[in-house]
Amino acid sequence: MIRIKTAIFVDAWRRRCQQGGAFATILRKGDEDAGMVAVRVYQRGEPMRVWMETRDLDGEKAWRDLTRGGASEQEADKLLEREVSFDPDLWIVEVEDREGRPFLQEKLLDGDSA
């Protein structure tokens, strides 16, 4: 399996967000080569969602919803602080989108999966 560097993935993801009419920013840089990624999704008037990079049962890249459908900004921050304490190489990126899209092309899993 070919794995692209995290910095390249994040840069491409940000461009995808911007092309889709959303604003994306890096909140925390992790390891440029192999850091995992967490995506905070902000949609005005809606609970915040946090998608964490993971692998599915087949070993394919997927994204798990840490907020299980939504959380307050403070709850999302606590979840991310906990993840950083486990993995100091973690990248945290945020997208602000009117439709609440995470702009992730891989499989999205609910909070109880993988």
- Strands side by side in the biggest sheet: 1-5-2-3-4-6
Count of helical regions: 2
Radius of gyration: 13 Å
Based on CA inertia axes, which overall geometry fits?
globular
Separation of the first and last Cα atoms? 19 Å
Q: List the helices and strands in order.
A: HEEEEHEE
Structural class: alpha/beta
Number of strands: 6
The overall pLDDT average reads 90
Roughly what fraction of the amino acids lie in strands?
25-35%
Largest sheet: 6 strands, mixed
Which percent bin holds the helix content? 10-25%
Spans of at least 5 consecutive residues with low confidence: none
Protein name: DUF1491 family protein
Pfam families: DUF1491
InterPro entries: DUF1491
Word description of this protein:
It holds the Pfam family DUF1491. This is DUF1491 family protein. The protein is an alpha/beta fold. The chain is 25% helix and 29% strand. It has a six-stranded mixed beta sheet, sandwiched between helices. It is globular. The model has no long low-confidence stretch (mean pLDDT 90).
